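Thread: quick sanity check before group meeting

JM: Hey all, I'm pulling together slides for Thursday and realized we never actually wrote out the predicted structure for the chain we discussed last week. Dropping the sequence here so it's in one place. If anyone has concerns about the input, flag it before I start.
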Amino acid sequence: MRDDLEIQLVTECPNLYRDVNGNLQEPGTTWGIECLDGWFGILHDASLELERLIADIPEEHRADYRALRVKEKFGLLRIEMFYVSDEMLRIIDRAGEKSAVVCEVCGEVGELYGVGGWNYVACSNHMRTR
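JM (edit): ok, ran it. Output follows.
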């Protein structure tokens, strides 16, 4: 994801992305945002919903509810968290479902493709460039 989009997410969702690029050598730290710009809208909406829920958690427990990694897996958007509530899990699952029909490259309507064991969602313009 472009740096400016990642900065926007981190700025608007400081609790969720408190350690977005943590030390990879330390257990429980984050790995960052590893998806393309086309899913920014889906990720942004889900992140704002998650941030609102985290803000309602008592201060002493809030730090546990944070994103560890955002990535594409099996062609879908995945948001991995250190701790997660049932409501947060529903938001994360819904974001993954939405990503199944959105081109990860440009954000247009896409479909799931599989090539050589690798799955990805792309529009007709980007299906050949992945």
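AS: nice. The longest helix spans residues 40-55. Helices lie at 3-12, 40-55, 59-62, 86-99.
JM: adding both to the slides.
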